[in-house]
From TrEMBL:
<keyword id="KW-0689">Ribosomal protein</keyword>
<dbReference type="Pfam" id="PF00181">
    <property type="entry name" value="Ribosomal_L2_N"/>
</dbReference>
<dbReference type="GO" id="GO:0019843">
    <property type="term" value="F:rRNA binding"/>
</dbReference>
<protein>
    <recommendedName>
        <fullName>Large ribosomal subunit protein uL2</fullName>
    </recommendedName>
</protein>
<dbReference type="InterPro" id="IPR012340">
    <property type="entry name" value="NA-bd_OB-fold"/>
</dbReference>
<feature type="domain" description="Large ribosomal subunit protein uL2 RNA-binding">
    <location>
        <begin position="42"/>
        <end position="118"/>
    </location>
</feature>
<dbReference type="InterPro" id="IPR008991">
    <property type="entry name" value="Translation_prot_SH3-like_sf"/>
</dbReference>
<dbReference type="GO" id="GO:0002181">
    <property type="term" value="P:cytoplasmic translation"/>
</dbReference>
<dbReference type="Pfam" id="PF03947">
    <property type="entry name" value="Ribosomal_L2_C"/>
</dbReference>
<dbReference type="GO" id="GO:0015934">
    <property type="term" value="C:large ribosomal subunit"/>
</dbReference>
<dbReference type="GO" id="GO:0016740">
    <property type="term" value="F:transferase activity"/>
</dbReference>
<dbReference type="InterPro" id="IPR014726">
    <property type="entry name" value="Ribosomal_uL2_dom3"/>
</dbReference>
<comment type="subunit">
    <text>Part of the 50S ribosomal subunit. Forms a bridge to the 30S subunit in the 70S ribosome.</text>
</comment>
<dbReference type="InterPro" id="IPR022666">
    <property type="entry name" value="Ribosomal_uL2_RNA-bd_dom"/>
</dbReference>
<dbReference type="InterPro" id="IPR005880">
    <property type="entry name" value="Ribosomal_uL2_bac/org-type"/>
</dbReference>
<keyword id="KW-0687">Ribonucleoprotein</keyword>
<keyword id="KW-0694">RNA-binding</keyword>
Length: 274
C-alpha cells in the first residue's frame, strides 16, 4: 500500500495526498452483494433536522459484509480486493467451495487466490477467523466480537488491530486499538491480522469540496456563535470561548462521560490512555 502526492496544477491539489490503491484488484463490485443506501440528510421521519452537518454527498450502494464468519470449516478463495465507499478499510470478495460469495473486511497482506476459512480447527493465519480460545497468545487480531454470534464490532477500521495478551478461564484479555485493556469471552470470534489500508491516516483531502462529496456539510465554530446557540458563544470582539464544552454543556478534553455504575465496567481492566 502506498500514497501519492499530486502535482499542484490546481489550488485544491497543492496539499492533496491520495491513496495509491495498489492493493485494489478490481473496481466492479459483486452485484448480488449490493444493497440500496438511503440518505436522510440529518432529518427524522417528520422532516425535522435532528443532526447537523449532514447532507449531500455522492450516491453510494451498500456492500453486504459478512461480519459473523459463521460458515465453519469451509475453505474460501479470495477472488478480489475492492474499495468500499462506506468504510475506511478495503474489503475482500471470497467464494466458498459450494459457490456462495461473501464480502469480508480485508486484512493486511491478504492476496487474491489465498485460501481462508473460519472455525476452531483452522490455522492461525492471516484472514482466518477463530474463537479467541484457540488463538495463540500475542497474536495480532482484528474484527473482534463482543458477544458470541453477534458479529465483529471492534477493530474494524483501516489499519487497526488488537493484541491477545492473556487467557484466564472463560475470558481472554485483549489490548484494544485505543490502548484500553479489557476482558472478552473466549468463545467470541476474531480474525487473524491487522485491518488493511493502514495508509488511510496519511491522506489529505486538499479542499473543502471533498468533504461535501463525502456528505459532510460545513461546521460553524462554537466561538463564532451567539450565547443563545452555544455555551462557548458570545463576547465582545474575537473573544475566546472559555472552557471547551459541547452544545449541551458537557465539558470536553478529558472529562469522563462513562457511567460509573455501568455493568460492563468490570470487564475493563485498564482504561485507554489520554
Amino acid at each position: 500500500m502506498s500514497v501519492r502526492k499530486l502535482k499542484p496544477i490546481t489550488p485544491g491539489q497543492r496539499f492533496r495526498v491520495v491513496n495509491g490503491f495498489d492493493a485494489i484488484t478490481t473496481d466492479k463490485p459483486e452485484k448480488s452483494l449490493l444493497a440500496p443506501l438511503k440518505k436522510s440528510g440529518g432529518r427524522n421521519n417528520s422532516g425535522k433536522m435532528t443532526m447537523r452537518q449532514k447532507g449531500g454527498g455522492h450516491k453510494r450502494r451498500y456492500r453486504v459484509i459478512d461480519f459473523k464468519r459463521d460458515k465453519q470449516d469451509v475453505t474460501a478463495v479470495v477472488k478480489s480486493i475492492q474499495y468500499d465507499p462506506n468504510r475506511t478499510a478495503f474489503i475482500a470478495l471470497v467464494e466458498y467451495g459450494d459457490g456462495d460469495k461473501n464480502y469480508i473486511i480485508a486484512q493486511n497482506g491478504l492476496e487474491v487466490g489465498q485460501e481462508i476459512s473460519s472455525g476452531k480447527s483452522v490455522a492461525p493465519e492471516i484472514g482466518n477467523a477463530m474463537p479467541l480460545s484457540e488463538i495463540p497468545l500475542g497474536t495480532i487480531i482484528s474484527c473482534i466480537e463482543l458477544r458470541p454470534g453477534q458479529g465483529a464490532v471492534m477493530a474494524r477500521s483501516a489499519g487497526t488491530f488488537a493484541q491477545l495478551i492473556a487467557r484466564d478461564g472463560k475470558f481472554v484479555t485483549v489490548k484494544m486499538p485505543s490502548s484500553e485493556i479489557r476482558l472478552v469471552l473466549s468463545t467470541c470470534m476474531a480474525t487473524i491480522g491487522a485491518v488493511s489500508n493502514s495508509d488511510h491516516q496519511l491522506l489529505v483531502s486538499g479542499k473543502a469540496g471533498r468533504s461535501r462529496w463525502l456528505g459532510r456539510r460545513p461546521r460553524t465554530r462554537p466561538v463564532a456563535m451567539n450565547p443563545v446557540d452555544h455555551p462557548m458563544g458570545g463576547g465582545e470582539g474575537r473573544a475566546s470561548g472559555g472552557h471547551p464544552r459541547s452544545r449541551n454543556g458537557i465539558p470536553a478534553k478529558g472529562y469522563r462521560t462513562r457511567s460509573r455504575t455501568k455493568k460492563t465496567n468490570k470487564y475493563i481492566l485498564e482504561r485507554r490512555k489520554k
